[in-house]
Design goal:
Elements (H helix, E strand, L loop, with lengths): L6 H14 L8 H17 L6 H9 L2 H23 L3 H15 L2 H4 L10
């Protein structure tokens, strides 16, 4: 298996996995978006009701693997959605970084958690 870590190579790997199982028929945009939300909720559940200390302890121990797997599930659904919508995720992220750089100039946003409309 290709262990290259570009977004495009990961997308090819998950699409091949999906196609080997004939799952594309289930991968419409609506269901993929719902699946992404569900996987994100499963990631959130790992942190539910835990203090920052408990989270740090979990991540330093056996809980890290579960978080790792949930992050992977979220990313797989993002790759599927990118493919289903024809959106190149790498260029979309680069574009978003550029947009956010304009909204959050370093001189105003540095060290601040305020939304750009409040800066």
């Amino acid at each position: 298996m290709d262990h290259e870590t570009t977004i495009e190579s990961l997308k090819r790997a998950v699409i091949a996995f999906r196609d080997e199982r004939d799952w594309k028929q289930f991968h419409d945009v609506r269901n993929l978006a719902m699946g992404l939300s569900i996987e994100s909720a499963e990631l959130l559940e790992r942190f539910l009701w835990k203090s920052n200390g408990e989270i740090a302890e979990m991540l330093a121990g056996d809980g890290l693997e579960g978080v790792r797997h949930e992050l992977a599930d979220v990313f797989v659904y993002l790759l599927y959605l990118g493919e289903a919508t024809g959106i190149d995720l790498a260029s979309a992220v680069r574009e978003k970084i550029e947009q956010n750089a304009k909204k959050y100039p370093v001189g105003k946003a540095y060290g601040s958690s305020k939304k750009y409309t409040e800066l």
